[in-house]
Design brief:
Elements lengths: L2 E4 L6 H13 L4 E4 L10 H10 L4 E2 L3 H6 L10 H13 L2 H8 L4 E4 L3 E4 L15 H8 L6 E4 L7 E5 L1 E5 L3 E3 L5 E5 L13 E7 L4 E7 L3 H10 L4 H9 L2
Parallel strand pairs: 1-2, 2-3, 5-6, 6-10
Antiparallel strand pairs: 1-11, 4-5, 7-8, 7-10, 9-12, 11-12
The protein binds zinc ion.
Length: about 240
């Protein structure tokens, strides 16, 4: 069994297409998604349909998914993100809005795996896990060996065995009695200085988690953002991965 874990797709069709091609090459059998399928970029409808067609075992809800599928006032978003959410609201069909709105904040699969967009302690408050201190709080609410999350768009992994340690990773061999909180990075808007799309594969039988980076057609994604009248900054940041 090999899962692909997709996070923060953010309506970037070019990135999602390249990632799915890579996932097929790698022999992925099942998909998981930690949310923020929409927001920021120009293809929310198409990305949502593409994710739905993968028939993922679990999809959890991101903050952009929540805001794009509701009509509440936008609080806590920067002006560019808010503009993109308003634009996304106009794009989505009713059935897509309802599908997004019904996603769970967190979900556990068996005894081994949990998925959440932001944090496990208060998933609906959209806190950020950037260091071992915030990771430790989150790990206190994690009752499976592995939890995949996103929200920061920075692929970092934290490991708890007595104390909590963390940092960048390419590959993790899971060890018995250790707990892992793993950020899968962002498919559609990476922010770690590497503009390539990011996703993770997870093979439970081999106890192996691997981070993958995939080149994609950034120029086309940028052109679509500008053509849609979305903020120019959202196009620029794709080029630098910030
Ligand atoms: Zn996001």
């Amino acid at each position: 069994m090999k899962y692909a874990v997709l996070g923060d797709v953010h309506a970037n069709l070019e990135a999602l297409t390249a990632v799915l091609e890579k996932a097929r090459e790698l022999g992925v059998d099942s998909y998981l998604c930690i949310g923020d399928i929409v927001g920021y970029n120009a293809n929310p409808q198409e990305c949502l349909e593409m994710v739905r067609l993968l028939n993922p075992e679990v999809v959890t809800k991101g903050n952009h998914d929540e805001q794009a599928s509701s009509e509440t006032e936008l609080v806590g978003f920067n002006p560019q993100a808010a503009r993109a959410i308003e634009w996304t609201r106009e794009q989505l069909r009713e059935d897509q809005r309802l599908w997004l709105a019904a996603l769970p904040y967190r979900q556990t699969i068996g005894a081994r795996l949990t998925l959440v967009h932001a944090t496990l302690d208060m998933p609906h408050m959209w806190g950020y896990v950037f260091d071992k201190y915030s990771a430790e709080v989150c790990l206190g609410y994690q009752f499976t060996q592995v939890c995949f999350f996103g929200h920061t768009h920075v692929p970092l992994a934290f490991e708890k065995y007595g104390t909590v340690n963390g940092g960048r990773y390419d590959e993790i061999r899971l060890q018995a009695n250790h707990k892992y909180l793993i950020n899968v990075g962002s498919v559609g808007q990476p922010r770690d200085g590497d503009p390539r799309a990011a996703f993770v594969t997870y093979s439970p039988d081999d106890r192996l988690v691997q981070l993958h980076r995939v080149e994609y057609d950034i120029a086309t994604a940028q052109q679509k953002i500008l053509a849609a009248g979305l903020p120019e900054r959202l196009a620029q940041r794709l080029g630098v991965g910030r």
